[in-house]
What does this fold into?
Amino acid sequence: MWDILKNRWRQGTRTIPLSSRDQIPEQFRLKEEELKLSKILDAKMQKFFGRSLKLRAVTAGSCGGCDLELQALNNIIFDLSRFGIQFVASPRHADGLVVTGAVTKNMKLALQKTYEAVPDPKIVIAVGACAIHGGPFEGSPEVLNGADSTVPVDLYIPGCPPHPLTILDGLLRWLGRLENK
Amino acid sequence: MSQEFLTIQNAISFEESNVPVLETEVWRQIILEHCLAGKMRIVALFTERKNGDGLRCYCVLGNDGKKTLHVGACDFIGPNPKYPSLTQHLFEAHLFERELFEEFGLLPEGHPWLKPVRKQGDYPFYRVEGEQIHEVAVGPVHAGIIEPGHFRFQCHGEKVLHLEIQLGYQHRGLEALMVKAAPSSQMVLAESIAGDSVIGHGLAYAHAIEGLSERSITPQRSQSLRAIALELERLSSHAGDLGALAGDIGFLPGSAWFGRLRGEFLNLLMDLTGNRYGRSFLMPGGVLSDGTPKKVLDFKKRLAMALTDWKDLAELFFTASSVLSRLEQTGVLKQDAAREIGAVGMTARASNLLRDVRQSYPTGIYRICKIEPVKMTTGDVYARARIRSLEGKRSLQFIQERLETLSHDKISQPCGALKKESMIVSLIEGWRGEIAHVVLTDRERKIRRYKIIDPSFHNWIALSVAMQNGQISDFPLCNKSFNLSYAGHDL
It folds into this structure.
């Protein structure tokens, strides 16, 4: 017990403060052109999802890199739960889906069923180059070239894989939690 | 030593015409004779379509003791190719033969369970009948943020009688894409085989192309940088796994701090390469970015701090009695079972089977600078956790040594054109285990067949074996202790 306390004292707090966009380093922010393409959630949806968002992550044919970055969001450095955003175990408990991967033919049915299981109102976020349009696998006969082949997507976050701060930049600004500059 | 198979070296190409094409029965006997005696093991077993409807089946055997590789082939012609399967005598061939059958229709007669590898369909899972038996199906979409795969348990109460694993959900058609892609895109594809083994697969690809090129000299500075990136990848995955194991057993300080350490190694990799996982760093002939002297100094400081942290955290984790009681004797994979299934890498070393490509078939800087592999004897979750901790410390020390001795030369040298009608076997010790890329070129100096074998291809069955007669509540812990790649298996 004493060792744990001693270690805690030594390690200190590592969580990156994130209350304004300036705190995200320039290299991780989504650029101006990408900004214009995304609509900020309208007032009604913001009322539903702005302060508490439960997400179900579905990997549909990815290399695994984007999933690792999504997992990293839950660690003590990025601490996603302080924004009220959480990953849940069942689509029935979720407000929306986070889709990674280029959607292989083998995963199409699973993704569809998971989407249908999420109760309305729901949102879909596509994370990573593969989920946007197939990434390096675009054109392969085994792949359906992105999440919007199967489900309607509300937010796209580019990257291969996107740095956790980029995912946060996109997600939080879309929810109206970080001012949009 | 096999007189009939061709003896080759890791990452050194040879002419395809030198590969002996044998009678099916002779080929089969050579494989069985050497593997059953325990002297060699199957590194690769795959097929290629030749001359219309003909098939050529290659087998690459590895002799870890004598540090040699051997390759031999046999041909099949006609509409219904078949041969007596190797699996009925030699279990480690099982998944390779299922793959041959699925992709090319080459029937291994007598194979005990010819189920699909990557195709999905109405597959009848193995069932245990009985009034008190219940079946649990998990996946493809799992509870956490994890890759998709299907697990079917046959349970009696809490005890798991049988676990069957069905994968294929991440099948993106990588081998076909590698053959069609332009050379500039091939590196991107190789890096995307498995997102946490970017450097592993990328290096296997780079070595394969360099070996197949007419002229290629990789500068030593780039070889050191490549090894540093590979070891950083190993460290980040090991730290992440230890954190995940800690989280699974409820030891939250370990979970929080190992997670932070993982971030530290990923940030080091980002400062070296520009990407947290090392993408766009490797190229055939060298690397794309360098370490300035200021960066190298900064790295040394951060690595020294990371080593202190690692040692402290490992001590904290492995001396807690609650941790030990949960990890010890759980998910045991005995040495004979590991040898029988052909396990490679960390899984094999945790079960007292010394298999490490950096020692047996070293390439790059590993030829000059040895890194001692770690071996554990018990084969349980504790062994797999402990081996990560010990390997992590060794890797940290290895990186520190490489930073001290970085040579002063270029970081890349472009390769020449590929050789005609040549073949190469390129092995790398990724953090999970042995990564194998086997490449064949055609008369136009283009790649005509690209075979990728991730260590998970050998190791997935280990999870089924370790879970037998275990508790179903131990499944997440066992799964995390192996941490096998779904994407690497499915390609």
Observations:
- The mean pLDDT of chain B is 91.
- Residues 220-248 of chain B form the longest helix (29 residues).
